[in-house]
Amino acid sequence: MSTQVAVRVRKITGAERAVSVGSHVVLSIWAIVVILPLLWTLMTSFKTTTEIFASPFNLPVKIQFGNYTDAWTTAGIGTFFFNTIFVVGSALVLVMLLGSMCAYILARFEFPGNRIVYYMMLGGLMIPIFLAIVPLFFVLKNFGLLNTLPGLAITYVAFALPFTVFFLYAFFRQLPYEISEAAAIDGANEWRTFFQIMLPMAKPGLATVAIMNFLGLWNQFLLPVALNTNQKNYVLSQGLAAFASSAGYDVNFGSLFAAVVTTVAPVLVVYVIFQRQLQGSVSQGTMK
Amino acid sequence: MSAAFGGASGPTPWPVTSLPRAPKHRAGRWRRNLTFDKISLFVVFLGLPLALYITFVVSPLIQAVSYSFTDWSGFTPDFKPVGFANYVKILGDDTFQKAMYNNALLAVVVPLIIIVLSLALATMVTVGGAGTGQIRGIKGAGFYRVISFFPYAVPAIAIGIMWNLIFDPSSGLVNGILTGLGFSSFHLFPWLGNIHTAMPTMMFVIVWGFVGFYMVLFIAAIKGIPAEIFEAARIDGAGRLRTALSITLPLIRENVQTAYIYLGIMAIDAFVYAQALNPQGGPNNSTLTMSQELLTTAFQKGEFGVACAMGVIMGLMTVLFAALVFTVNRGTGGRDRITLA
């Protein structure tokens, strides 16, 4: 290697390094801004109320697991947790089933009104839930579903449907026609073709939509606040908000922090396990 | 599965094989045979989801629009049409005007900050790496991406309450750090209780919650640009900033527009954050949102007709916002299609 080339390379590397170091500094600061509040919340959840008010930085003298049992039982977070599991779990299963069925029909069959249904679903993605919330209250009331967990689950399904259908529609369209034809030739009826051939082939798409729906439904706040006002039936998000607004100065502050951690932990675990898939799906959305 | 594949080559009485290949045969499929099998499939597969969707989403939307022209209080069966009276009432109401202003402010400022910040971070991750020749991503890009994406997985209500605790005047982390650094004027400073800081604080919390998601989205978009284009720009002597502004931004314009519209829709709602940070609307209603006013009007005052009108105004603002973004994007050159050939 001649000296001339070597000099040029070094010169570029100097400026390059400055850019790289600068980028690292900025990105690290951002990473700290993201992580620090989460870690601080976690740490504070182990402190007593006195310790919390003494200083925001002190480590807990003794780890207060009592905050968690207190939040779980006294504040009712435990009940809210299982309510959430029930509502989100059943809504997720239903929306995945109904959503994939609907997407399959729209994507694979030409029939009069196909476009109308498709655009009706698409419109549901854009319109704010707030527009529908008041009449929705009375729709549920007329069905006797107001303030019940099944009622909340059904509403979740209806509002998660557009996204699910929209995403899976694109997925079912890509699947090769030859395979469903082969199934039909072999004598599989339409139902069997769907459940035994098409659905298993759509697994990657289904998994991604399921994860995104899980996060979205677990985080849902407006629908339960408006439609599920019986404290016994609270889900985590609204229970947490109620706990926070009731937290006067005599309340154990540590347990409020513990309640926040309890709400965040399950979704963060799901995220960490599936982050590759989730980030991949965000990327997929940009390919169009 | 294997049986399905195996049978494809064998002779069959089914007319399907004689049909031309996709896409033409798709139209033929429908006309071909309306068997019980297919009808039952349609009834269940399309009928069930559609019935649910129409009952719980479409019909409430239509009802909301018609109720907005009545004096319905919800709990009495009788109500009478009042024309545009509800709209006149709320548009002249000081509190709702304030809420509309707050949401409009959120819809203008928050998406802008989030998009600028996430684009800058995404650019650093994708082209911030040191090296000669090819432009490369920064070392540890995966780490930054995973960390930044964290807030997306945290429930919005938990984000709000967490930051409410962090901005707490006496026990919060922010005042702790600031007074620790010597800024003693921030001792017991009420971030969310001060008329000047409450709104910026809420904006900060929303930005914190969304930047990571859009950063990941933009990283993917930037990675979709062929490397040759960056190389050509570099050979022509363009620096990184110039490349980002003149090459990257125009090429991912569509993604930016989509992000802007989604963030605007979120900002016109903003209910969760407003409710977690200042459930009462903040000092002098400085963080009050239309969504909070709507719920109060409906479920505390029982004025359902008025609340429906508020919902319609929120919907109209959303449509208006999307139209505005489209127009601005087109007016500033987004119309010229850039092709990567």
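Residues 1-10 of chain A have pLDDT under 50 and may be disordered.
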